[in-house]
Amino acid sequence: MTRQLRYFEALREAQAQLLATDPSTLVIGLGVPGPTGVFGTTKGLQEEFGKHRVFDTPSSENAMTGVALGTALMGRRPIVVHMRVDFAVLSMEPLVNQAAKWHYMYGGKLKAPLTVRMIIGRGWGQGPQHSQSLQAWFAHVPGLKVVMPTTPHDAKGMLIAAVRDDAPVIVMEHRWLYNIAGPVPEAPYEVPLDQATIVRRGRDVTLAATSYMCLESLKAADMLSRIGIEAEVIDLRAVAPLDVATLTESVGRTGHFVVSDTGQESYGVGAEALALVAQHAFGALRAPPRRVGLPHIPTPTTPALADLYYPLARDIAVAALTTLGSDRELPPDDSDPRRWKDVPDPSFKGPY
Amino acid sequence: MPDNSRLDLYRQMLRIRLVEERIGDLYAEQQMRCPTHLCIGQEAPPVGVSAHLRRDDLVFSGHRSHGHYLAKGGDLRAMLAELYGRATGCAGGKGGSQHLIDLECGFMGSAPILASTISVGVGAAWAAQLDGLDRVVVVYFGDGATEEGAFHEALNFAGTHKLPVVFVCENNLYSVHSALDVRQPDRPIHALAPAHGLQGVYGDGNDVDVVYDLAAEAVARARKGDGPTLIEFATYRWREHCGPNGDLELNYRSAEEFAAWQARDPVNTYRQRLTATGMLSAPAETAMAKTIAGELDAAVAFAKSSPFPAPEALARFVYPDPADRR
Ligand SMILES: Cc1ncc(C[n+]2csc(CCOP(=O)(O)OP(=O)(O)O)c2C)c(N)n1
Ligand SMILES: [Mg+2]
Known about the structure:
CATH class of the largest domain in chain A: Alpha Beta
Largest sheet of chain A: 7 strands, mixed
Order of helices and strands of chain B: HHEHHEHEHEEEHHEHEHHH
Order of helices and strands of chain A: EHEHEHEHHHEHEHEEEEHEEHEHEHH
Low-confidence stretches of chain A: none
Number of strands of chain B: 8
Number of domains of chain B: 1
Radius of gyration of chain A: 20 Å
CATH architecture of the largest domain in chain A: 3-Layer(aba) Sandwich
CATH class of chain B: Alpha Beta
Oligomer: heterodimer
Number of strands of chain A: 14
Helix content of chain A: 25-40%
Distance between the termini of chain B: 44 Å
Radius of gyration of chain B: 19 Å
Helix content of chain B: 40-55%
Strand content of chain A: 15-25%
Bound molecules: thiamine diphosphate, magnesium ion
CATH superfamily of the largest domain in chain A: Thiamin diphosphate (ThDP)-binding fold, Pyr/PP domains
CATH topology of chain B: Rossmann fold
Largest interface: A-B, 43 and 47 residues
Shape of chain B: globular
Strand order of the largest sheet of chain A: 3-2-4-5-7-6-12
Structural class of chain A: alpha/beta
Strand content of chain B: 5-15%
């Protein structure tokens, strides 16, 4: 059997192998060398690779991103780590105005091979300022690549590919994926930064999704299968650029499309995916496509409202039935004994 | 300072301590489902500072805000209900521990994005100046927040315009698990103040008498229109960065360091001082603790028995209701 690693271990291994094989790799961020090592993803790296390549930063997201960019222009391959996407918001200037554009605006003379890891929080009252899912912001900016690996395999392969890529790449990691295990080859490998992957085959409807919503889409496909509907599930993996070929090929076969994203539904990745499918596979669509995402509301902290806020597999399945124009009834809710759905698994005891 | 004022400083520190300890005990029940940063060990700065504030003075804070809220007069019941995610919480359950607010007493809000409320507080101080009020604004933050650009930008503006604001930095030597010396050069934080045209002062943040005296001057300066002050208080966090437990097993700080700071417990040392001078007797102290415990029991019961917000609350307040337009 292939070796199994959890998502956070796969990320750690990717960084350890990059540090070991490429002396230009740096890993920086607040808490990177600390005892908990950014939820285990950077634990022990400083001991192994030294204080000059793996280091703690002040909480100065703005300047430190510029600093990382400066090292990247000088041939380093820095990985900047943010415990929450929300903190990376303080680094929008150096990312959006600078890193994204230095290759273009100087006529190709400079490269900025910067990788920024951003963790999307969720649950246990992470609330309005610790759980945003802002991939669409970064995807909107020409010059930035944005990926959202879902599996441990892709977490490792995409992080390695991101660091080796000469463009600035944003890697968005969902906290609820961190403890999930999956097969991960030991030797370093790359997963392309621009390709979606079909994770379940089906003929009736295409369910495309980003990151954690992929797992919910797989559950939705199970529900649908129990009432005789076979859904195809696509893990988008790459958000910018989006893999339009895989989407249109699938929709060409199923004729029905639902896209789910961890972020806000409006102006989001789902909107872009729908637009692309409408443009490129309009003829194949047999009904209006649907998107599933967060409502246009900040994240509430109380679990009583957060549970209503986050869409689940059932919402995706309902969207599929809607686009299919089907009046079949979904099986009753799987018995979920949890009082609140604000933890990824029962072992999680808060606060993070 | 009159005896009863000092007794009140003690009572307030004890109250914050007991509230935080109770939250720590109850957290394991997993009903307060939000990130919670306890201020045990850091009770003196908010108490000594708030002693000089009027009800219409304003306070802003960051993630570790329970003490700031309570010392300014924030409603304990509404705070606990907020932690329990209830409709009766000070933010209706939408904010949790990281977003306390109580406008009745001038606690304008807390937000956990480092340094973010510093500039917002400066804006409130500017408004007070524009309005010709003698209102003072206090902004609390940690040593980590002083590393953000927004901190420096806000100080620059406040210094330029001599705004009525007191910046209170609670330097507890750590930002999560990262020690100060890997994050900042070897210079005191309060030394940043003169560079921005502010008064900068430093004191023992575990001695509420020291806090009281430094704050007296800073608040008076601000109120007179003589400009802002940055006060750096040396203090120390006892529990883990976020959550109810200790964290010495993580080894980012030594047991010796921890013990040395525990010996300087702001609550206990003040109790001893007041007892030695005869201001506080053991029975009076016991009675005080008992009253606070009673208040706490009632507040916890209130929070736990309060309803959760109704589903309609989810979409409410994304935008102000035009019907409420001023
Ligand atoms: C902009 C931003 N970056 C990082 C964080 C994560 N974070 C939350 S609290 C904290 C520690 C801040 O230390 P300090 O300001 O000294 O306050 P303390 O926790 O010691 O009271 C950090 C880094 C954050 N909330 N906001
Ligand atoms: Mg600190």
